[in-house]
Amino acid sequence: MIKIQEYRGHIRNWETLCRELGIDTSLSREEREGAIIVKAYETWGNQMAGHLHGMFAFALWDDEAKKLFCLRDQFGTKPFYYYETADGDLLYGTFIRDIMKQPGFVKELNEEMLQLYLSLTYVAGENTFFKGLKKLMPGRYLTWQDGVLKIERYWTPEFHPDESKSLEDWADEIHTTLGAIMPEVKTADETAESFLSGGVDSSYVLAMSDVQTTDSCGYEEERFDESHLARKTADILGRRSMRRVITPEEYFAEVPYVMYNMEQPLGDASAIVFSIGCKATAEHTKICYSGEGADEFFGGYNMYRNAERYGENLKTFYVGNTNIMKEDEKKRILKKYDPDVLPIEVAAKIYEETEGLDPLSKMSDVDIQIWLEGDIYLNVDKMSTAAGLEIRMPLTDTRIFDIASRMPSKYKVNEEQNKVAFRTAAARVLPDEIAFRKKLGFIVPIRIWMADDRYNQDVREKFHSDMAAKFFNMDEINAIFDSYVGGESDNWRKVWTIYTFLVWYEEYFVKR
Q1: Cα end-to-end distance, the chain, whole Å
Q2: pLDDT, tens digit, for every residue of 294-312?
Q3: Of 47, 162, 204, 238, which has fewest CB within 10 angstroms of its CB?
């Protein structure tokens, strides 16, 4: 008998799977998804994930074989953690806090991760900030039988450029595929809203959906506020728009809540905004669409346009979307520095896998395997779950990635534009002014807020605390802070990354 021990997710192609596996489609969502996972394991075994579309992480117990089987989806949209105890037991789950409560877990800081975190601003790779606690990485399954742990990889991003198609052909394939996916994202009896920024990704998802209400965050500082673009898009598409204005006081007050619910530190300043946005949206819906995935799949970041110039040098420095502190600076500010702990080592195996591919494909692959899992999807999952909101991401789908994996890089970026084919597809349902709007990113006014003494008192206190003195050379980190407050605004990321670690550490090792 197969028992579900743990499951979080949403299976999109449930109707097809129910027909294939002989499952009653009238079951409730919880019952049918449970039945699908069990029956898929019985039918396809270790390769079951290749038949499922959606977002999922789960653990099954095979009573007959006395074997535990755990699996995480191809992109890591849902987290999964495991921990081997001194007594030889395996603890596992989708929440770190649940594992910490189990007998045999010993809470110890993995200080080595701090050195990586100061560069990347998120927790990359399989290790975590808790000694011995590991992440099951995307596209992998874990088995535990007779006290033996094995981890196997069932899916790897692969790139095989097809030069036979035109730009319009690729745009048609994207548009047709997304059109086929959208009806799966929710059932007819479910209602959803959609997060909407000024960008093409969320606008395209909205245009392809039957969602009637959009949700955006904004600020009183006009130069940082994209919400007027979102409202304009909603108006063009005939949808209702809701706007949540975020104040600096509210933003800073939210930081401890975010770091606690994130379970590991995250130096992405947009996570605080996202948390507030999730709470506001959860007040009037339980399901919300979001547009993650397209940037990494289809060449959405402006830095991707430098890929050819980077060439073979990529594997010496490119570790993903962020790299804010170099080794000499970390050596100065950290009390413990290990010259063998280098961010580039996290990406080393990926560069081995992509040997011979063009530079853009290499950059995309690093971001798909490291940045998406460690930052973007972690943020989406943790903050939405904490707020009681379920987020579904139509563009994060193996069928969408399949198109990107075959698309030559010239249709992803050129000298003038990023996401060329994707934008061309979006222009089928959006005005050109939206489909081809320059990428702005998720802008947060933190760089000016944190320099303001009205809002930065907790940052100052943390930077002068005994807690900070455990890890940092105080003169060095306060020199960075003082330089930032004095006008060196580029230092804000360094200040924020140190600060978020200290807030997280206080939540997990001081307060609790």
Answers
A1: 39
A2: 999 999 998 999 999 998 8
A3: 238
Per-residue pLDDT reduced to its tens digit, 199-208: 999 999 999 9
Rounding to the nearest 10 degrees, give the CA dihedral for residues 137, 6, 32, 387.
-80
**Residue 245: what residue type?**
V
Distance separating alpha carbons of residues 190 and 471, to the nearest angstrom? 49
Within the chain, all domains assigned CATH 3.60.20.10 are found at: 2-153
Cβ pair 383, 332 in contact under 8 A: no
State the residue for tokens 């993650």. 292
Q: Report yes or no: 121 and 265 within 8 Å, Cβ to Cβ.
A: no
Query: Nearest 10 degrees: CA dihedral of 101, 105, 111, 113?
Result: -80
d(CA 434, CA 297): 20
- Per DSSP, the three-state class of 242 is strand
In angstroms, rounded to a whole number, what is the distance separating the alpha carbons of residues 281 and 260? 20
Tell me what pLDDT residue 440 has: 65
Residues of the chain with CATH 3.40.50.620: 167-329+336-435
Whole-number pLDDT of residue 441: 59
Q: How many CA atoms lie within 13 A of 381 on its CB side?
A: 24
**Entry pTM:** 0.96
Kindly list the distances between the CA atom of residue 237 and the CA atoms of 8, 181, 213, 241, 333, in Å, as whole numbers in the listed order.
33, 20, 11, 11, 51
User: CB–CB of 259/498 below 8 Å?
Assistant: no
CATH of 167-329+336-435, one of 1.20.120.140, 3.40.50.150, 3.20.20.80, 3.40.50.620: 3.40.50.620
Cα–Cα distance between 59 and 68 in angstroms, integer?
Answer: 7
Angle subtended at Cα 20 by Cα 14 and Cα 26, rounded to the nearest 5 degrees: 50
- What is the pLDDT, as a whole number, of residue 228? 85
Task: Give the span between the Cα atoms of 265 and 255, in whole angstroms.
Answer: 10
Is the pLDDT score of 48 beyond 60? yes
* Largest CA-CA distance found in the chain, in angstroms, rounded: 67
The verdict on domain 2-153 having CATH code 3.60.20.10 is yes
By the 8 A CB rule, do 142 and 77 touch?
A: no
Contact 455, 249 (CB under 8 A): yes
Residue/partner pairs of 475-481 with CB below 8 Å, 24 or more apart: 476/332, 476/333, 477/333, 480/333
In terms of DSSP bridges, do strands 133-135 and 140-145 run parallel, antiparallel, or are they unpaired?
Answer: unpaired
> Given this model, what pLDDT does residue 442 score?
55
Distances in Å between the Cα of 167 and the Cα atoms of 94, 174, 190, 409 are: 41, 11, 35, 11
